[in-house]
Amino acid sequence: MLNLEHIASFLAVLRTRNFSVAAHERSLSQATVSQHIQKLERVLNTCLIERSHSGCSPTRAGIALLPHAESLMHLNARALNLSRDRAIRIGASSNIGIYLLQPYVKSFLAKTGGQYPVELVIHQNPAIADKLECGEIDVATMEWWDDRPGYIARPWRQEELVVIVAPDHPWAKLPEVPRAMLRDAHFLGGEPGTGTGRLLVHHMAEAMRGVQGGMQLGSTEAVKRWVQAGLGVSIVLSNTVVEECRVGKLCAIPLEGDPICKTLYVIWRATLRHDSLPLRLAKWLLDSNKAAENSRTKAAPQICTAL
Predict the structure, then answer these.
(1) Residues 264, 141: contact at Cβ < 8 Å?
(2) 64-68, 149-153, 177-181, 197-201: which range is least confident on average?
(3) How far apart are CA 134 and CA 243, in angstroms?
(4) Closest by alpha carbon to 291, among 103, 13, 92?
């Protein structure tokens, strides 16, 4: 069984790159910190830290342990603060956290008078799912959900996928992009794990066959910059390029045929109490978007007033 004191010393050594400084930071002797690391390595049966004149650095096993160690300490802090911790932690996939979530959280804070602070964690979809499962976040907003048991997932928003090109691209004047034309395009990929690729294959497998794969750029922001520079085309959520299209830096063009839409989800643990703050926030997100849809507006979500 892992000892949290040993984990804390492990993180302190990696943070300071020095056993002596880590010991001072933890108000322990250097010998005690060394013992902590030795015992942790014995439990895991591997070397975690390499020592050299230039400082301490993690081994491959230490690098693998690092996110789990940080998660354990974070969960420990949350457990110790349960009686006074009133912040709600919401996790969001990158596209949702960067482009879509702000007006909802702003309206929730305004309605509750800031009485219940909201902490936001933005990460890739798979990481958000893992953080929800291990208790690091209370509510997740994601671009997919794999129906794992013990959670409630509700459809939240429908986001249309559009082709984006530079303003001087030959497709920029098209009212829609024929799907067959994608085969001749230099395609740029964004963040892995969003499910966009699987969705495109599901809806247009024949058109996607033979598409020339370009760079995987890691984020929608990077994709937009490279497309703007004329280095390829991409397919993104329509609301992620509103500003660039407004100022003429990019052109967003619908795909030929019926729109391909991605369903975004709000997910929470099934064990949440019906009156818990995280569940109130989850329902606020769902009700707010329903109000926006009913208003038939394409502007920022019109947030409902009932909490």
Answers:
(1) yes
(2) 197-201
(3) 36
(4) 103
Instruction: Report yes or no: 273 and 279 within 8 Å, Cβ to Cβ.
Output: yes
What are the residues whose beta carbons fall under 8 Å from the beta carbon of 224, sequence distance 6 or more?
164, 236, 240, 241, 244, 250
Query: Which region holds residue 149: left if phi is over 0, alpha if psi is between -120 and 50, else beta?
Result: beta
Q: Kindly state the DSSP code that residue 98 receives in the 8-state scheme.
A: I
Checking DSSP bridges between strand 251-254 and strand 118-123, what pairing results, if any?
unpaired
pLDDT tens digit sequence for 4-54: 999 999 999 999 999 999 999 889 899 999 999 999 999 999 999 998 888
* Nearest CA among 101, 144, 134 for reference residue 119: 101
72, two tokens: 């354990």
**Residue for token pair 């989850």:** 282
- Smallest CA-to-CA distance from 9 within 24, 82, 1 is with 24
If one compares 207 and 65, the residue with the highest pLDDT of the two is 65
Query: Cα–Cα distance between 105 and 280 in angstroms, integer?
Result: 12
Cβ distance 122 to 97 under 8 Å? yes
Q: What's the rounded Cα separation, in Å, for the pair 134 and 71? A: 8
pLDDT (tens digit per residue) in 240-249: 999 999 999 9
Instruction: Measure CA of the first residue to CA of the last residue in the chain; give whole Å.
Output: 43
